[in-house]
Amino acid sequence: MKYKQFLISGAFALASGSVLADCAPDAPGACTEMLLQSTVTWDGAPIRYLRTKTPELTVRMIQFSPGTYNNLHIHEAPVYIYVMAGAFEVVLADGRRETWVAGQAFNEVMNTVHKGGNPSSSEWTKLVIMSPSIVGCPFMTPWPLADGPQCKEDFGWHDGRKWGHDMYGGWNWGWGPHWRP
Questions:
Q1: What does the pLDDT look like over 141-154, one tens digit per residue?
Q2: Residue 60 falls within a domain, yes or no?
Q3: DSSP H helical segments within the chain, as ranges?
């Protein structure tokens, strides 16, 4: 029994060591590996966030069988993609294309007609996708647009909170009598 626990612990230590060796240490037993840091989408357009008083964050996993692509569409909200397995290709309406493979992350195009899919003839593609958006905004809007844009921003809305110190000396986002700007 102890031998089995030793083998399992050793295997975990080896696996953990190989994982930890590839990232910057943050604290004992924790580390960070930067997957993506950018100010533009993959086609060079600046990243733009939506202004709203009804924010929503979605995180989804999508899988594509070999050779499968979705239909032409746009994303009205920002979309960030991490390729977990296989390869993922995005093809713009003007013919430009880009491919990412397992372990890579990218900022998807926004309000640009495109389709995406699996360029492989034998391997599945697995993606993790995060999108900060507005409640009711679809993840992807089919092209051509039937009813115009679906995501309505609240341009007149302003969040009156400010970053500042709370009464305990920590940084917080909020307001109140204890607030020090």
A1: 898 887 778 888 87
A2: yes
A3: 2-20
